From TrEMBL, chain A:
It comes from the Eukaryota. This is AP-5 complex subunit sigma-1. Coiled coil: none annotated. It holds the Pfam family AP-5_subunit_s1. InterPro entries: AP-5_subunit_s1. The gene is AP5S1. It comes from Vulpes vulpes (Red fox).
From TrEMBL, chain B:
Residues 450-782 form the AP-5 complex subunit zeta-1 C-terminal TPR domain. Gene3D superfamilies: Leucine-rich Repeat Variant. It comes from the Eukaryota. Coiled coil: none annotated. Signal peptide: none annotated. InterPro entries: AP5Z1, AP5Z1_ARM, ARM-like, TPR_AP5Z1_C, TPR_AP5Z1_N. Residues 321-438 form the AP-5 complex subunit zeta-1 ARM repeats domain. This is AP-5 complex subunit zeta-1 isoform X6. Residues 1-280 form the AP-5 complex subunit zeta-1 N-terminal TPR domain.
């Protein structure tokens, strides 16, 4: 199952010192228990920890993506489509995976699958031993849906105030972090239902 | 895409003050209390979500606001948009102490799903997971009319099972297992009818538009699965998809004996085959208890998926799904066989056929990994030889597909996770290290930490030397792979047989047992040394070398240590010239050389000849300063009878001469453009080593004292042409003075400079008669007194 889904900024490889990596949206499905810690910790501290864990993942994804892009000699602008109506060639978008050891930063061992599109990074934080093919497919699907329904490629796009749509997409295609085996027709059907319920 | 305007918005949301936030909350409360909840409410909630989620610190919201959010969430007539936003805001604030949301009276499964996503994020301090689980089962058990109700429920159940499997009672587990059987095996095989209101679901008894199809367009031949398609779907078909999606986790967590109890693998082969005869003939599965029946149906589902994956899908999305289904089917079969070994007999033939089919299909390579995992897990029990499968996996896949980051990652994870079950096949893994290193060379940032964990199991005394060479040549391997990728025929096209041979060795698939000196190849591939990928790999090598050495030093005996030490010396000036690579590698190699010497001090005596050669060349001073310093220090430390009885006075004298000559050369020669100034560390270590040797062969003391005085005066009065800076000169001077002082009392010098092994005992330092600082202070005072007497 998926533990968390996040969207964050990806800065261009050259501009490393401009600003910080920002998490634009994150959704945690369920929570990690901390039963062994004897100290009574407030809810605030738990939330703080959770936010920092997500930020740590975002930073690592950003650096992995940057390293991969640099190694393959691609610039982020390579993925820019000619017009905003064309679909982004997602199969060429950089994608990768890495493992997080127990305690660093999550309690348990987790795997992160990520995908980068222009200046946005998308990541799924999975439990260990998940079906990575399914996770990768689901992530691509989510990114495609988000790019389409939030029109993220237009210059004035802004996903910060569109959390409702993101939630709507996640509720259908990744309910409670459950990865679903959806064939093409199912996806189409669900998408139609989503478009009907949430007109653009 | 992320514009300055967006950055500004984020900044604003983080900076909003408490007062302003409270005003905004009142506005939200007013908007939510209206009869008609319109776009204003949506807009306000979107902003509130941003404010709450933008900062990692807690935002104080008024109680009325939070309560109203909770009420709106549960309101049945509320539009989905608002419900989702309320849920999201409450979830973003979690864990939170001011939440009084409960699922106790929730009847509607959709509402339960929303409430659950907030409650499950609280962290289970008040047993929220249990209460959500119990409520979910209550809804499941109650007689609900047909409709889209259950589709919201299953993911909740799946999550609860994942988080707290022990909270479910046996009858609840049985209930769900029964329902899962229905959904998995007996879903409708007719397509759904489009709902008139534009929704997604329809009642299965409406007018039938036709049967579902396979992914290649043919009419479905058997029961409905996730690979069955149609224009519209029915509710139970949707539940089929969800049921399969959660099946593996459910089987693992709901099994009464636990996920993989140790007995199942130990069951004897005989017992397994007896049981299999029974299960192969028994089709009266409705007589089985629910868990067993679920397993049986799951098995049938997997077999059907494997059959369905042979079809050529018409759409790319379906083709990708087929691959994911194959992986899932194999993983499921693995779980089933672990829980009930009677499945083993039927599974083996099926998987062997699948493996044969996949070997010839490059697009489905990733599915080979779970198959190999299966055979490693169950090979012993089934007396099947997994060797052939592993051979194919390790020798073919990495060569051809090192450039795919996801495959490389999965491959390495497979190696790491399977280490406990490799058994006598561990040899195949070890001998395939050259192929595994290709994955590492190409994808170093993502895989370095995985390999650091894997290395201790990869290296053994037979392959250590070859592996060290390969590690040192890793950036060169990256360059060669890049060349091969861009120009696949470079191996045959080159007319130079030496180049061909070396390249072939570098790109070999398995450990050859031989080593080749790749220096000519380094030169030929020099233009590629500045490639970013090569540089990234070069940056990873020092970490890998450290991991290699910490593994090797655990088991290396004297002979192997000698070999490795010689290797370090030899390779230190034969490295692929990537910027900064040599400097970093030298640092690691020199410190590891000292570690080797510390573990096997006789190394110095046994390799005396080679070490003499090494320290004799002046060029080492500038090109291999770190190595030279380490070697000289090691000589000073370990070339003595107390470490190895075979050490002769002759050896000591010979080293002395060579080192003295070296020191003379480096201090007398004028620094020039080609020969920079000698670093003071080299000078001091040479002086110290010479003194140590002299303390062991005391005839040398006068020579050394003379030399040291000269050094001291040279340092105090540097020649005008030399640009020795004050600090360096000071250090040299001080050291020379210390050493001279020590030599004035030869027995003390011996005690200080050639301590016996007992010096590492704490007693040596606590006992006032033997403590070193005391001895030094005494010596200094005596010498000063002597000097004072001399001066009158």
């Amino acid at each position: 199952m998926v533990y968390a889904f996040l969207i964050h900024t990806l800065r261009a490889p050259q501009a490393q010192d401009m600003g910080l990596c920002r998490v634009l949206y994150s959704c945690v499905f369920g929570a990690e228990n901390s039963p062994d810690d004897p100290r009574p910790h407030g809810a605030e501290r738990d939330r703080l920890l959770r936010k920092e864990q997500i930020l740590a993942v975002a930073r690592q994804v950003e650096s992995m993506c940057r390293l991969q892009q640099q190694a393959s000699g691609r610039t982020p602008m390579d993925l820019q489509p000619q017009s905003s109506d064309e679909p982004v060639p997602l199969h060429e978008a950089p994608v990768g995976a890495f493992r997080l050891a127990a305690g660093d930063p999550f309690q348990e061992v987790r795997t992160v699958v990520w995908l980068g599109v222009l200046s946005l990074g998308f990541a799924l934080v999975l439990d260990a031993h998940e079906n990575l093919l399914l996770a990768e497919g689901t992530l691509r699907l989510l990114v495609r849906l988000l790019l389409d329904h939030l029109r993220l490629l237009t210059p004035s796009a802004n996903l910060l105030l569109r959390a409702d749509r993101i939630e709507g997409i996640l509720a259908r295609f990744l309910p409670h972090g459950q990865l679903l085996f959806l064939n093409d027709q199912f996806v189409q059907g669900l998408e139609k239902e989503f478009s009907a319920a949430w007109p653009r | 895409m992320f514009t300055a305007a967006a950055e500004g918005l984020l900044h604003q949301a983080r900076r909003i003050q408490d007062e302003e936030l409270q005003k905004f909350c009142s506005r939200v409360v007013k908007l939510l209390q209206k009869e008609e909840l319109g776009p204003d409410a949506v807009d306000a909630l979107q902003r509130l979500f941003l404010i709450v989620s933008a900062t990692k610190y807690k935002r104080k919201l008024e109680k009325t606001c939070v309560d109203l959010l909770q009420t709106t969430l549960c309101a049945p007539k509320c539009p989905e948009q608002l419900q989702l936003l309320c849920t999201a805001i409450l979830r973003e604030r979690s864990p939170s102490d001011d939440l009084n949301l409960s699922c106790d009276h929730v009847q509607n499964s959709r509402q339960l799903s929303l409430v659950a996503s907030v409650l499950l994020a609280q962290g289970d301090k008040k047993e929220e997971v249990r209460s959500v689980g119990q409520r979910a089962f209550r809804v499941l058990e109650s007689r609900q009319p047909e409709g889209p109700s259950l589709r919201h429920l299953l993911p909740v159940v799946s999550k609860v099972t994942h988080l707290a499997p022990h909270t479910l009672h046996e009858d609840q587990t049985n209930l769900l297992s029964k329902r899962l059987v229905d959904w998995l095996r007996y879903a409708s095989v007719q397509q759904g009818v489009p709902h008139t209101s534009g929704g997604f679901f329809s009642a299965p008894r409406a007018r039938q538009p036709g049967p579902v199809t396979e992914v290649d367009g043919a009419v479905a031949t058997d029961f409905f699965t996730v690979l069955s398609t149609g224009q519209h779907f029915t509710e139970d078909q949707w539940l089929n998809v969800q049921a399969f999606s959660m099946l593996r986790a459910w089987l693992l967590h709901s099994s009464p004996r636990g996920p993989s109890s140790p007995d199942t693998d130990d069951k004897s082969e005989l017992e397994g085959s007896t049981l299999s005869v029974l299960s192969a003939t028994s089709t009266a599965s409705h007589l089985l208890p629910p868990q067993e029946r679920l397993r049986e149906k799951a098995f049938e589902y997997c077999q059907r998926l494997i059959e369905q994956s042979t079809r050529r899908a018409l759409r790319k999305g379906d083709s990708d799904l087929q691959k994911a289904c194959l992986v899932e089917a194999v993983l499921l079969l693995d779980v089933l066989c672990r829980q009930d070994p009677s499945f083993l007999y039927r599974t083996l033939s099926c998987l062997k056929a699948l493996h044969a089919r996949l070997c010839g299909d490059p697009a489905r390579v990733r599915a080979l990994l779970p198959i190999a995992q299966f055979f490693l897990n169950h090979g012993e029990a089934a007396a099947v030889d997994s060797e052939a499968i592993l051979q194919h996996l390790f020798t073919r896949i990495p060569c051809e597909l090192f450039h795919s980051p996801m495959l490389a990652f999965e491959f390495v994870c497979f190696c790491r996770d399977s280490l406990p079950v490799f058994g006598r096949n561990l040899d195949i893994l070890r001998r395939s290290f050259p192929n595994l290193f290709k994955l590492l060379a190409w994808n170093s940032p993502a895989l370095t930490s995985e390999f650091v964990a894997l290395l201790p199991s990869l290296v053994d005394s037979a392959t250590a030397v070859e592996m060290l060479h390969t590690l040192l040549d890793l950036p060169c391997l990256t360059a060669a792979l890049d060349l091969q990728l861009r120009n696949p025929s470079c191996l045959e096209a080159s007319r130079d047989p030496q180049f061909q041979g070396l390249l072939q060795h570098l790109l070999r698939a398995t450990a050859s047992g031989t080593t080749e000196r790749l220096a000519p190849l380094h030169q030929l591939l020099q233009p590629l040394a500045s490639l970013t990928r090569v540089v990234q790999c070069a940056e990873a090598v020092p970490t890998l070398l450290q991991a290699f050495f910490s593994a090797v030093t655990q088991f290396a005996d004297g002979a192997l240590s000698n070999q490795l030490a010689l290797l370090l010396l030899e390779r230190s000036d034969s490295l692929y010239q990537v910027p900064q690579y040599e400097a970093h590698v030298h640092r690691v190699l020199s410190s590891q050389f000292l570690v080797l010497c510390a573990r096997h001090p006789s190394l110095v005596v046994e390799l005396a000849k080679e070490l003499l050669e090494f320290v004799g060349s002046v060029s080492s001073v500038h090109s291999r300063e770190a190595m030279l310093t380490a070697v000289v220090w090691a000589v000073g430390e370990y070339l003595s009878v107390s470490w190895d009885r075979r050490c002769t006075v002759e050896q000591i004298n010979r080293f002395f001469e060579v080192l003295e000559a070296l020191l003379f050369e480096v201090t007398q020669s004028r620094p020039s453009a080609t020969l920079p100034k000698c670093p003071p560390r080299v000078i001091t270590v040479l002086m110290t080593t010479l003194t140590k040797l002299a303390s062991r062969s005391q005839d040398l003391i006068p020579r050394v004292s003379l030399f040291l005085s000269k050094m001291r005066s040279l340092a105090q009065n540097p020649a005008p042409s030399s640009d020795r800076c004050g600090e360096d000169a000071g250090a040299v001077c001080t050291r020379a003075a210390e050493l001279l002082t020590l030599l004035k009392m030869p027995s003390v010098a011996q005690f200080v400079l050639t301590p016996s092994a007992e010096v590492s005992e704490p007693r040596y330092h606590r006992d006032t008669n033997t403590a070193l600082p005391l001895a030094l202070r005494t010596v200094s005072r005596l010498v000063e007194k002597e000097a004072g007497l001399l001066l009158g």
